[in-house]
Write a structure and sequence with these properties.
With 253 residues, the chain is mainly beta. It has helices spanning 2-18, 47-54, 111-116; strands at 26-28, 33-35, 40-44, 62-65, 70-80, 86-92, 101-106, 118-121, 126-129, 131-135, 149-158, 161-169, 177-186, 192-200, 205-210, 213-214, 223-231, 245-248. It has an 8-stranded mixed sheet with strand order 1-3-6-5-4-7-10-2.
Length: 253
């Protein structure tokens, strides 16, 4: 009986671990269009991808390529998550041509990572290279008009790590999605972690990690505070941070 129970646990753990294998790079904007002066946010979700992010434009040149030109992408900022993630804000070195299609290229990555630098096409049901059609910029910096409200903390243990989420009620903006620069402070250690989160219109804001990794890791029964700032399409930050929101990570039973 003990052996059967052991193999059940082993099977569950292996199944959970298998779901953590080979995640793709995360690329924002998600849509097929890219405003002319828009930033690009790229996130690595494995140790190898984190190393690539750290060495962009050093060992791994990154640029946009169309039929007519190559436009280098400058690394504006790099942020490290607390569990297997790292991201970079990229800015084109010059204006892109409206109506042109550009493909995102990272040089010197191996064939496996090239396959993971792709996005899923729901029409063809295949992963494809990352391309955008360039549109007019709709440049505007918005500010957070109301203080976000803490809603809940959820934590669940799995075979290869905990899944943790802190949920907030967050005021919507006019855009379908916005980038939020987030500063989280552990009130016991005073350690600060800065990371960019995508907030979709009409949804609550959720931060944390999946069992495979993520931007923030939370100790149970601990106190934290967080604040947010909006980054516009061109990579500019609002001067108005939200107020600090304090919360406690109490696991529900």
């Amino acid at each position: 009986m003990k052996k059967i129970f052991f193999f059940i646990l082993l099977s569950l753990s292996m199944n959970a671990f298998s779901k953590c294998k080979e995640p793709h790079f995360s690329i924002y904007p998600y849509s097929d269009n890219l405003p002319q002066n828009s930033l690009i946010l790229i996130q690595g979700n494995t140790n190898t991808q984190k190393e690539i992010i750290s060495l962009l434009n050093k060992d791994f040149p990154i640029y946009l390529k169309s039929n007519n030109e190559i436009v280098n992408l400058n690394v504006k900022e790099i942020f490290s998550g607390q569990s297997l993630t790292k991201q970079a804000i990229l800015i084109p070195e010059r204006k892109l041509i409206i109506g042109e299609e550009y493909e995102l290229i990272i040089e010197n990555i191996n064939s496996n990572e090239k396959e993971l630098l792709s996005k899923y096409n729901h029409d063809t049901k295949k992963f494809e290279s990352i391309k955008w059609i360039i549109t007019n910029s709709n440049h505007s910096i918005t500010r957070i008009k109301e203080k976000p409200e803490f809603l809940s903390f959820n934590s669940q243990s799995y075979g290869c790590g905990p899944s943790q989420n802190v949920n907030f009620k967050f005021p919507d903006s006019e855009s379908e999605s916005i980038i939020l620069k987030s500063e989280l402070i552990d009130l016991k250690t005073n350690i600060k972690t800065t990371y960019c989160i995508i907030k979709n219109k009409g949804e609550n804001l959720s931060i944390g990690r999946s069992m495979c990794g993520g931007e923030f890791y939370f100790n149970l029964n601990s106190f934290y505070k967080i604040r947010f700032n909006i980054i516009d399409d061109e990579g500019n930050e609002s001067k108005n941070w939200s107020e600090w929101i304090e919360f406690e990570t109490i696991k529900k039973r």
